[in-house]
Automatic annotation (TrEMBL):
Gene Ontology molecular functions: oxidoreductase activity
Domain of life: Bacteria
UniProt record similarity statement: Belongs to the short-chain dehydrogenases/reductases (SDR) family.
UniProt-recorded name of the protein: SDR family oxidoreductase
Keyword vocabulary terms for this entry: Oxidoreductase
Stored PANTHER family: 5-KETO-D-GLUCONATE 5-REDUCTASE (PTHR43669), ALCOHOL DEHYDROGENASE, PUTATIVE (AFU_ORTHOLOGUE AFUA_3G03445)-RELATED (PTHR43669:SF3)
Length: 251
């Protein structure tokens, strides 16, 4: 499996969950991968587990200085990426809420990471990709951006709607310079992010009942589309959203 031979990828939020699975799969496909995360210890351990084709970078995507410094360090080390997966995100269970009950602080914390942080990742990714003559940017979206699935998570859902819009805008702006931008939209995928659902049998049964295929997603379910979009096989795909949701958005 060498569909990503010769590529250097950067994946944010790669210490665990979907980001880690994507990093692991990209390496299996022959890429070098920078695992970036704000959790320094966890990302160092994660990169260590993946061997010499993996490299750790500590960066909080909501901090522009940290993002700029991480990209500069990669350039100096000869690891400028030509594939960037802007995947890091948070969902503040127990705090995010329907609009009338949502604290401004919770809204701001969510938007700061999920939307502003994705923008900052994309900003420096575009600069890096331009220096490499083009490449692929993949954003992690959510069905909550497009339907009522996230009705109790106003901040999260709005932040993801912003991510979907950002992807289309940046795709249009840079298509003629060899940069493709696409959004992958997983549904309920069992990772540490959604432990509040996974660990509660009633909540878990309720969400699985809204997935026509009849099971929860796994991080591995999301990696195949990421490989396609990162590789040259996806060279005519840009500005699009790819659902991997067991049919959840058909309901
Ligand atoms: N799990 C799901 O059901 C699901 C569904 C749809 C979309 N998503 C999206 O997929 C992406 C990955 O989610 P996951 O389920 O793997 O989550 P996760 O919580 O398992 O992992 C997220 C990782 O992102 C890191 N992170 C959080 N904030 C960060 C920041 N400011 N800077 C850098 N790193 C940061 C965390 O440290 C963690 O390692 C997120 O954007 C999430 O919104 C998840």
């Amino acid at each position: 499996m060498t569909r990503l031979q010769g590529k250097t990828a950067l994946v944010t939020g790669a210490a665990m969950g979907i980001g880690y699975a994507v990093a692991e799969r990209f390496i299996a496909e022959g890429a070098r991968v920078v695992l970036a995360d704000r959790n320094a210890a966890a990302v160092a351990e994660a990169a260590g587990a993946l061997g010499p084709l993996a490299r750790a970078a500590t960066m909080d995507i909501s901090d522009e200085a940290a993002v700029a410094a991480a990209f500069a360090e990669l350039e100096a080390a000869g690891w400028t990426p030509d594939v960037v997966v802007a995947n890091a995100g948070v969902q503040l269970f127990g705090h995010d809420a329907p609009a009338a009950d949502l604290d401004l602080d919770v809204w701001r914390r969510t938007i700061d990471i999920n939307l502003t942080g994705t923008f900052l990742t994309v900003k420096y990714a575009v600069r890096a990709l331009l220096s490499r003559g083009g490449g692929s940017i993949i954003l992690t979206g959510s069905p909550t951006a497009v339907n009522g699935e996230g009705r109790d998570f106003t901040a999260y859902s709005a932040s993801k709607a912003g991510v979907h819009g950002l992807g289309r805008t940046v795709a249009a702006a840079y298509a003629d310079r060899g940069i493709r931008v696409n959004t992958v939209q997983p549904a309920y995928t069992e990772t540490p992010l959604v432990a509040a659902i996974t660990d509660d049998p009633d909540s878990r049964a309720a969400i699985v009942s809204r997935i026509p295929i009849g099971r929860a997603g796994t991080p591995a379910d999301v990696t195949g589309i990421m490989v396609y979009l990162a590789s040259d096989e996806g060279s005519f795909a840009t500005g699009a959203t790819f659902s991997v949701d067991g049919g959840m958005t058909t309901l």
